[in-house]
Amino acid sequence: MTRATEALRDETPPSGPEFPEPDDLAGTPAGPPAPPPEDRGLHWMRMLARYVRPHRRIFITAAVLLLASSVLGLLQPLAVQALIDGLTAGTEAGQALAVLTGLVAVAAVLLGIGNYLTLRTAEAVVLDGRRGLIRHLLRLSVPSLRGQEPGDLLARVTTDTMLLRQIASQALIDLLTGGLMLLGAVVLMAVVDVVLLGVTVVVTLLLVLIMAVIMPRIRIAALRAQESVGQMGAALERILGAFTTVKASGMEAAEMARVDVSARSAFQQGVSLARWGSVAGTAAGLAIQVAFLVVLGLGGARVASGAMTVSALVAFLLYVAYLTHPIIQLIGATTYLQAGRAALSRIAEVNALPAEPLDLPLPAQDGLPAASATEPRHPGRVVPSTPASVVFDRVTFTYPGRAEPALRDFSLVVPAGGLTALVGPSGSGKTTVLKLLERFYDPQQGRVLFDERSLPDWPLNDLRAGIGYVEQDAAVLAGTLRENIVYAAPDATEAEIRAVLRTTRLDPLLRRLGDDLDAEIQHRGVSLSGGERQRVAIARALLRRPRLLLLDEATSQLDAANEAALRDVIRDISGDTTVIMVAHRLSTVLHAGQIVVLADGTAQASGTHAELLRKSPLYAELAAEQSLA
């Protein structure tokens, strides 16, 4: 058992089924993926084989042990027949009793070891499935993820992958051992009495016909039950993501009713699954009982006529009773495979979503090597040697599912170093410019250059390693203040962390946390103010020291004093870093070297504040509205 267990440790977990590696992300559609081919032919079985293949040595070892246990079990009725014959003849039965006892004991030991290795392998298969699916989720393109329900994706990573355990621990082993046990029992029953075997086979064939009708219904019920669980997760995620809005609107009862619909649907489909499973189990048990009674009656008549001995009848009856186990195994395995087929179909839907060409190997696991020989690369901090330049060359981009382009024939030259501000009314395309630079989307026409190199020509890891991005809705992760600040710069020193906290005026927050960088911040940063969340995000970007810093309304939630302080910080760092800043408050960008006015997805004018006041009516209007004309 020790060698077999060590063999499992030597296996390399897969990254799951083969993932698509798109060359680019242009025109990636949102919304549900096309129906996968897993339900056609044997494709879903090949997908399952990819999960099991890395563990095939230990899987085969467990199967051999369980098969050996089953073979020893098949020999037990023959040992009982020999024991009865010996007792009937009045001869010494000690040897036959010892053989029977040995068969029982060794079979039990082999069964225990085989079951342990099977369950151990099943857990490894579940781990592989989850790690591969999570890896693919993290590599999804932004539009791919936007078209999905996070709660449903969570259900696929947790509930659906859990069914892989049942497939690996029960379905596959039971199919192998149950099938071989059934075949072996039939052969030995033929040795004992062919006539009684014929009766048993007829009853078994009737059971097979019944199961052929039941199994498709079990698969459909399993798929619908898993879909209902996913819908319930999506509904809960919707509530928890807007919890204060739900409370403030007094909509608890309405949201409860919404979730209850999915919960009841999951219940109904679970009941349907249980109903058909019970029918299958009952049919199997009834078939065995009928076979037993028929064999008992016909066998008794054959014993009375002298066609067979009593010991042969007892042995045959033991084989009929023994058939119960392999038949139940096969029925259970088929049921689990139907549920697993539904789960694999849902997992395949996620794997079919377009993913980014990111270098994202699986991390190493205790006792298990990493799935890739390449060490995971963390972007870390990029100490800039020179600021980056940016060029938008006649770019047109339309978001998936929208008719009007967000940018149309948009051109912009951002020189290396300095601050370039993007201003204009809402919906003019300012934030889209930043998203295209991060390659969250690719334009349908035109090109974007980073350091005179087209964005698709950059390895995505290297491109994003040189860019710092502060979103408008600043994200704060669950964890400590330190973890949030060093998120993109894990090698930062204590002095660097405290310096950037001072720079972003987060000293009061640090004092409130008892000067403890390792103090916990509540989920989604609910313990911080909006301005503090923004400054945490800015500090995270500044600590990385990127060559290009993108700021999307980075001062929208700051008061006047903190805005002025941050304006000075941005002016300082723009000396050795290129900064592109989206701003509605013109006061933040009055001293920008270049201000670009956007409207309807085009760059209408560019220049300094004073120049734009003279030549851009739209900019003059924006400045007048903010008393800056």
What does this structure look like?
The N and C termini lie far apart (82 Å). Mean pLDDT is 77; it is low at 1-41 and 366-384. It contains 19 helices and twelve strands. Strand 9, helix 17 and strand 10 (578-582) form a beta-alpha-beta unit. The strands form three sheets. It has a six-stranded mixed β-sheet with strand order 6-9-10-3-11-12, with helices on both faces. With 629 residues, the chain is an alpha/beta fold. It is elongated and about 120 Å long.
Overall, the morphology is elongated
Q: What proportion of the residues is helical, as a percent range? A: 55-70%
Rg of Cα set: 34 Å
Q: In terms of quaternary structure, what is this?
A: single chain
Low-confidence stretches: 1-41, 366-384
Mean pLDDT, nearest integer?
Answer: 77
Structural class: alpha/beta
Instruction: Give the terminus-to-terminus CA distance.
Output: 82 Å
Report the strand count.
Answer: 12
